[in-house]
Amino acid sequence: MAQTMVQVNNVFKSYWRDTMEIPVLRSISFDIPEGEFVALMGPSGSGKTTLLNLLAGIDRPTQGNVTVAGSQISGLSDSSLARWRHDNIGFIFQFYNLIPVLTAFENVELPLLLTKLSKAERKKQVELALGIVGLADRMKHYPNQLSGGQEQRVAIARAIVTDPNVILADEPTGDLDKKSAEDIMELLSQLNAQYKKTIVMVTHDPRAAEKAHIIRRLDKGELVNGDGAR
User: Fold this and answer.
1) Cβ atoms 112, 162 nearer than 8 A
2) Residue 229 DSSP label
3) Distance in angstroms (rounded) separating the CA atoms of residues 104 and 144
4) Three-class SS state of 16
5) Which of 157, 165, 202, 219 has the smallest number of CB atoms closer than 10 Å to its CB?
6) Element (H, E) at 49
7) Per-residue pLDDT at 227 exceeds 60
8) pLDDT tens digit string along 33-61?
């Protein structure tokens, strides 16, 4: 039986605007087994990205606990959280977030610069990651020399180069044409099936969500269905 990779226990999240409290998430609880592929769906403003940021340790819950890869991250210090995030999380953004003056190789290498790996070891891991996403022949190209789908593949290579426990993807196909979106979803499915990566993906696209094993729906900050298994 698979171990639990993500555990969210009675999580609330609010933001403050002056003296007004704005609730975003209310009493969220669920588990994600290791190696699972989960899609988070719901209308804009339902709290999907906020929940993803809590799983990444980018934000902290107002109340409740978030445990990922065996660490209760809601209680970690900022410095410990940064190290934990580097070691455990690969984040994929809608708009790629590549640095335009760096090549594909250099963009993917960035997370490894914080490690003690030698230059040769970094090179090996970057080449492996770019090979997995099908861009071994584009590593010297700059972002403006790549298509949108290729840029997202570079971003995915950057997310997996540290061999993270969990891949978090925020609308990974939202800025792509239909064919590129399909290719990216096939790649994520491969990372899940072949490399056993636990993936949590926020998406508005039902076609993208079909690649997930479990769909969880948020509405007005609350989970609105059962286990969501497909």
Assistant:
1) yes
2) B
3) 10
4) strand
5) 219
6) helix 48-56
7) no
8) 999 999 999 998 899 999 999 999 999 99
- What whole-number distance in Å separates Cα of residue 83 and Cα of residue 66? 16
What's the CA gap between 212 and 9, in Å, rounded? 22
Tokens of 23: 């609730």
Which amino acid is located at 191 in the chain? Answer: L
Look at strands 198-202 and 37-41 and give their pairing. parallel
Which amino acid appears at position 65 of this protein? N
Note the residue count of the chain.
Answer: 230
Give the separation between CA 189 and CA 156, rounded to whole angstroms: 12
Phi, then psi, of 218 in degrees rounded to 5: -110, 140
Report the alpha-carbon distance of residue 181 to residue 208 in Å, rounded: 8
What CA–CA distance (Å, rounded) separates 216 from 32? Answer: 11
Q: Structure pTM?
A: 0.92
pLDDT, tens digit, 9 for 90 and up, residues 76-130: 899 999 999 999 999 998 888 999 999 999 999 999 998 899 999 999 999 999 9
